[in-house]
Amino acid sequence: MMISGAEIVIRCLQEEKVDCVFGYPGGSVLHIYDALFKQEQVKHILVRHEQAAVHAADAYSRSSQRVGVALVTSGPGVTNTVTGIATAYMDSVPMVVLTGQVPTAYIGQDAFQECDTVGITRPCVKHNFLVKDVKDLAITIKKAFHIAATGRPGPVVVDIPKDVTAQMCEFEYPKTIQMRSYNPVVKGHLGQIKKAVQLLAEAKRPIIYTGGGVILSDAAEKLTQLARRLNFPVTNTLMGLGGYPATDRQFVGMLGMHGTFEANMAMHYADVILAVGARFDDRVIGNPANFGEEPRKIIHIDIDPSSISKRVKVDVPIVGNVPDVLEEILKLMDAGFKADAGVADWWKQIEEWRGRDCLRYKQDKLIMPHYVVQKLYEVTGGDAFVTSDVGQHQMFAAQYYKFDQPRRWINSGGLGTMGVGLPYGMGVLFANPGAQVACITGEASIQMCIQELSTCKQYELPIKIINLNNGYLGMVRQWQEMFYSSRYSQSYVSSLPDFVKLAESYGHVGMKIERPEDVEPALRKAFTEHKNDLVFMDFIVDPTANVFPMVAAGKGLTDMILAEDL
Amino acid sequence: MRHIISILIENEAGALSRVAGLFSARGYNIESLTVAPTEDPSLSRMTIVTWGSDEVLEQITKQLNKLVDVVKVVDLSEAAHVERELMLIKVRATGKDREEMKRMADIFRGRIVDVTESTYVVELTGASSKLDSFIAALDAGLILETVRTGVCGIGRGDRILKV
User: Fold this and answer.
1) What is the ipTM of this complex?
2) Percentage of residues in chain A with pLDDT exceeding 90?
3) Phi and psi at residue A282, to the nearest 5°
4) Could you tell me the pTM of the whole model?
5) Assigned architecture for domain A190-354
């Protein structure tokens, strides 16, 4: 039976078991929206700005194991998605973005709402396609889902001209796909894995350093198993939080620019680093020239060969899918693995570092942002999905909310996109209906996608917005205080709205919390009495609070500024 | 060090911009780039001359391999290979220079492919260094125009880049 290109798009989504699509209609996708209207299997979530559609699809993916899907129109619809696509690309999130395009005959003529979608998105996608013939439509969408979800995942854009969605064609969805130019490696090289096990056995000061790759490949369980067998300390990157239970004794906290004293010291002085699904980026190790003490050996497991030896020279590279490689290591260890006795002394050293209690802070008259996150952790039993925006609040969230499970901490690590928090909360709730979702944000970030309060009302999404309101672009202010002699250039946010009234005007619940003793009761009320409401909690916090420890940009990991030094 | 990277890539719209975009986005150098379909029209063969440290070259190769359209990548300059570039050069050929130009073309095994009363177009093929030498050997004032294709190359003997 012949069906239209628009119907083919929907049938493909159904075949991929896509249950919801985040989008915004417009001229060149009208045929597709008509086909959506005529069925019920694929639900459409109408956002208020295309950027939010992509962020929501991104979080849908991050918080589940499924590929998020967004659908937008041509021209401005596409350009509005670019921030969202780049955000997902930097954090390797599998996502398919379907974009409308002007009819093929108009392409290149500066038609109304035309833009070079493939050209504009090319540097921030894993791959993209322009479908010029309806006969290629189904196979292209199949390829898009395949490419997005396999290897090192990432966003894929499929650009579909309007005439292609009107043309008729037989529909056949391929079951599998073979591409001669795309065959990601899965199994690690056994010889290298053997070398790795040997190094682990000889290590006297080992550390396991894991990143977002552990979360994305669903390897948290295998990693935990391995780490416990080894009894080595574990540190996570910002993207890797939840990859190893944060409440476990072996966990030394996040590392990097705002990592814990013990994690950064252990990373620096380690003699063997087992890096898993992490990429030694600048916010994690600082300046590579100042990183670590030689002699030192690095084992690096990653599915992307280009991540290996990119910033730091690696001794044992293992290219492969993280859980598969970890499984191989565990198997080899069954043949009588014994860790070096020296590790006991290493633990003593780590405990001494841990004794500095670097995340200490004082809760006095003004509400401290750390305190709010800590209370949120207690009130939600550590079990919430936590989304965040970007800045100080993001670091406080990462430091003080202890994630014991993967896919619970949803934030923009690589690109550092302000404004993601609220749409991320939406995506999480569509992937995990009924879950507790807190969006930790600031008064500046939240205003970057504030229009989505309307979407949240339409779909009754009970997100709890934790607005750590310090009246400043906090992280900018902190850098200006520390490195620009307190010249606060443009970091003060004046003319703030009354967030309580704003929330209420959208039909949500608003609260303003100004005293430390009101923090916990407000949170409790939000999560019990207002369980089913979106609650906007505007916490007026100490405007001078800074994030510590801190490694200044370009310094080495041991060059930390601690709160106690000040 | 100078390297010659050979790439087999799906012959699809935009494939060239993916490669060129990768080089500009990551700050890699391109000295020359040539591309044309192979005997299998669904595949294009691209030759890029670049330079950089071993670490940079390792990243270039890995990043190219990561492009979804790229089927194979090889660094030709790692082993024995043949390298050729074509140049067309238009020179002033009048008076005593006319005979001199003809002689220079012969010495470099070039061919004169266009003749007017006052100009020659010389076609010259060889490694880039040979083309450079030819230009250096001419009186700069007589060169009217040059056009070079950029390098293409192929491995010697059993080194074959094929799907």
Assistant:
1) 0.93
2) 96
3) -65, -30
4) 0.96
5) 3-Layer(aba) Sandwich (3.40)
